[in-house]
Amino acid sequence: MHNDRDPLLSQRSALILLLGVLVGTGAGILAALADTGPASAVLTGAGAFGAGVLFFHATIA
After folding, report:
1. Within the chain, what is the greatest distance between any pair of CA atoms?
2. Which of 9, 18, 36, 39 lies at 20 to 30 Å from 29 by C-alpha?
């Protein structure tokens, strides 16, 4: 039976996604400050987000 009070994500998943967002945001801001184009900064942030999620998923037990 489904309970409406069940969490949508586990604490581990939420932490991994939060850290991935922080890494992606930081990388995107650094790329934007380095005078790359906006599209390049977004792609840099997205790539860093993906790499961060993979890294933290493998690291956090």
Report:
1. 54
2. 9
Phi-psi group of 7: left, alpha or beta (phi > 0 → left; psi -120 to 50 → alpha; rest → beta): beta
Question: Do residues 24 and 52 touch, judged by C-beta distance below 8 A?
Answer: yes
Query: What's phi and psi for 59, nearest 5 deg?
Result: -90, -45
- Whole-angstrom Cα distance, residue 2 to residue 57? 27
pLDDT tier, 59 (very low <50, low <70, confident <90, very high otherwise): very high
- Phi/psi-derived region of residue 21, left when phi > 0, alpha when psi is between -120 and 50, beta in every other case: alpha
**Residue 8, token pair as written in the block:** 């949508």
Unique residue bearing structure tokens 């400050």: 33
Contact 8, 37 (CB under 8 A): no
